[in-house]
Structure formats: C-alpha cells, structure tokens
Predict the structure.
Amino acid sequence: MTDLQDLYQELILDHNKRPRNFGTIDHPDCRAQGFNPLCGDRVDIFLMLEGGVIRDVRFEGKGCAISTASASIMTDAVKGKTIEQARALFEQFHDLLTVSSDDPIDAEALGKLAAFSGVRQYPARVKCATLAWHTLNAALKNQAQTISTE
Amino acid sequence: MNSAPRAITTPHHSTNTGAFDAERVRGDFPILRQKVNGRPLVYLDNAATSQKPRAVLDAMQHYYAADNANIHRGVHTLSVRATDAYEGARAKVQQFLGAQRPEEIVFVRSATEAVNLVANTWGRANLRPGDEVLITVMEHHSNIVPWQMLCAQTGAVLKVAPINDDGELLLDEFETLLKCGKTRIVAAAHVSNALGTINPVQEMVRLAHQGGAIIMLDGAQAASHMAVDVRALGCDFYAVSGHKMCGPTGIGALYGRYDLLNAMPPYQGGGDMILSVTFEKTTYNHVPYKFEAGTPNIAGTIGLGAAADYLRSIGMDAIAAWEHELLGYGTRVLRDIPGVRLIGTAKDKAAVLSFLVGDIHPHDVGTILDQQGIAIRTGHHCAQPVMDRFGIAATARASLAFYNTKQEIDALAAGIRKAIEVFGT
C-alpha cells in the first residue's frame, strides 16, 4: 500500500486550501477552459503575454485537491517564463506523472512541481494533475473552445 | 431435452428465518474474498456494477465448455442445447419481471440500448412535431440523451418533471405536465442511480395513462434490489441491465407490452430478425426476434438467466428488507460524522448513500477510501442535471447490495474520518 502522504503532500494540501493566482483577468490576451468529463472538474486559465513572456496568469474553477493544487502551482511556475519554457516545463511535468515510479526525477528542474511525483502511483488521478496544463497549452494556442481531458 | 449434465451450484438460502445471513451469501461471490491495498475489499459501488455469484460464472462457463453453438438455426445437438439455454433465459427473465409472455422480453446489450430501442422504433414511428416526451430531473444520461436525439429527429419537445430538495419527484408538477395532453411517452427511472430515490411508479403509470401517454420505466437500479412485477405496475416498457443485477456485462433486457412490440418497426436489420429476404421484399420475424438482429450475446443471456434465478433463490423481498436495514444503518452512521452531507434524502429510498464530506472533493475522498480497500463511485454519476439541481459538481456515492454488511459500513465511516484527518477539515 502506498502512503497517502505520497499523494497528498503538505504542499499540495496547502495550495488546495489557499490557491495562488486564483481569479480572473479582465481583458486577457488569451484564455481557455478545461473540462474533465469524468469528474466534472473545470478550470479557466487567463493569460497576459508580453513579447513571448507570460507576464500574468490566473485561474478559476472547481476541482479536486490534485487539480486545484496543480493549477495553483503551475501558475506560480510559469509566471515570468517564456512560452517555450512553459511548454518545456509541461513536458517535464508530464514525464514525471507518466514514467515508472522507479525512474529518478529531476527535482531541481521541476521545483515545486516535484510534489506531484506521488500521482504516478495513482493512474486514475493523472488527468486531475494535467488538466490545468492542457488548458494552459490550449490558451497559448489561442484556442477559444473548451478542451477536454478525454 | 438434450442437455449436458450441469455443474451449477444451486443456491439454497433460507429466507424465512427472519434474519438475513449476509455472510453466507458473500460465500457465493468469489471476488469478495480478496484484499485491496492490503485491506479486505469493501465493495460499495453496486450501482455502477454488481458482483457476480458463482452460479452465474458457472452457467456461462458451462455454456462455452459444453453447449457452445449458434442458436435458432442448427439441427445439430449443440445448437438445440444452446437454443434451449438461450430461450430458457428468456423465460427466467420473464418470470423475474412478471411479464405475461416470454415474447415480451427482448434481449439487448444494456438498459441503455433498451431505451434507444424504444426511442428509435416506437418513438420514430409515433412522434410528430409538437408531441411531448416527459422525463424527470433525476434521470441517468442514458434516459435523457436518446430522447433528446429523438426530439431533434421528430420535432417533438422534451419536458422535464422537477424534484424537491430531498430528491423526490414533484408528483403534482408531473401531473400538470401530463395535463396538456401532448405527452406521448413518459420515460422515468424506477430508482435514481445518483440519489437512491424510489419513484412512485405505480402512481406515475396511472397518471401517464390517464394523460393518454405510454410509460417506460428504467429499472437498471431497481431490478436487483426489490421485487418488480411489470404486470402489477402496468407499465408499457421496462428496461433492466444484466450487469447491475449480478449478471454479466453486455446484456440487458427490455420488457415491452406485446401489442406495442408487435406494432413497432424493427430496430436493426440482419439475420434472425427476418422470415424471408429477397432483394424486392423482406418479411420481418415475429416479436421478440424482430428486435434481435444478428447472433446475440448467448453466453451473456444465459448468465443473465442464471442471475435472475439466483436473485429469486435468495428472495427479492428478503434482499429489499436487508438493504433497507443497511440503508438505515448507513444513514445514521454517516450523519454522525461532522461535515458529512447526504444528497438524496427521499422518504422512499433504495440503498444508495450519495454524500459530500465538508469541502473535500469527492475524487479525493474516493482515492483515500480506495487506499483502505473501499470501492465507491465519485463524480456526477452520469446524471449531471441532478448535480446541477443540487448546485454541486459531484458526489461520493456508496451504493449497497444484499452481500454488504454493517461492518463494511463501519469501514466506510472510518475511511471518511481518515479523509477528514488527511485534509484537516
């Protein structure tokens, strides 16, 4: 049995309780809505861009602890990054959730995102952790439509 | 009858001693004897699918090992045996539902397909622009979407009867919606999957008929939990799901009144649903074969027949009484946990406990319970309009069966307390 604390690490519980960058941006440069039809979770991502850099990012929505904390920590992580850097981070994060739990993780590159390493033991919850990131990707592509994890 | 010797365990549960022996019944279910995440499995997701007793597994195994052949077409011995077993299952389901004739039972893939069959055949043949289809707020998506599609195709209008804060149908509003005289068909759950509400189906049938409509009941959540008698109910169609009543997946049954089925056009075209085919004209087979095109799910049908027999051997009244006792116990135990809110508190209720734990998301509750070997469902339960009605996105749902015990409800309560501890709420 895996320890619940591997999944619900302090950092995740904290960001779930007090999500950072929670709210809307009035006239965002781009935005997207993400939806997980399995559990009904929704997230809205709002972005302000400046010369290829994410100047501000905020999110709103309703979801489980994993998806809320993921959105919160993601907004902290990508703020100030270039679009390319943000995409690269998503790739690293995605690898973290999908590689075998025996593989070492690059904790330094991932920073706080490494808190989600426990999710890979819970395949049913990977989509919760990636919803915000998929939505960010959609916003960066300026897709206006709702994106879905399915 | 040419039948190979059967090695099927015959359940012999005493139901007249008063107390229900859940421990003994559990012995019939091999899957329940296992640990999940180091703890004894506590299976409380019966509204999603029920577990299968040895008698069902044996019946299907026996068919494949001893009788496997195509049905309704061979002169050889195995084909005769397979046909006997398949039609025998129809008779078992007929008895189980109290239908007058075996031809009134049509085998389908699922309760979902049963609804789609009625919408596509009866619906397309009978609905005209402006006609109304009446459903309720508490329907499963499978009893909403087929009617929406039908309305889009025919110009009919979908009407929805509301519910109160306990999750009970507002019968007055239901009656008012029927009074306009435009309703041609009512489609309603016998038991709500998300709330557990047992609808007043007898009264609904009366009101529907009084309003000049026919009525289809979705019995997916009822058939394995209470005695169902379609003749006593007087409903026109009744849908059941095999896998929710201890049978296999991929099989369900539609009960339809003979005269209605007989007047309906076929569902799908193919083998077995025809009497003769030329390129100029095809003559369709009789009811029910008219609706069973192609080689059917023979093993699944036999498994469903065995499940109906198994449930009858335990006794539907005994099952209903034990589940009612579990519901009462579970309701008290969950209400004792600070922060737990039950969604669905109808007076007449099946053993479904839909709940929220403080502001912990149901998904997180589900994961924490799973770590303790407890299987529940979390999410919108394919009933998003119900969730909208209560202003929530999802619930955690423990749905009970007759093989559940009070100790398992205690384990659920301990698991919920653990979730509260983890989240510090």
Remarks:
- The helical segments of chain A are 4-7, 10-17, 65-78, 83-98, 107-110, 126-140.
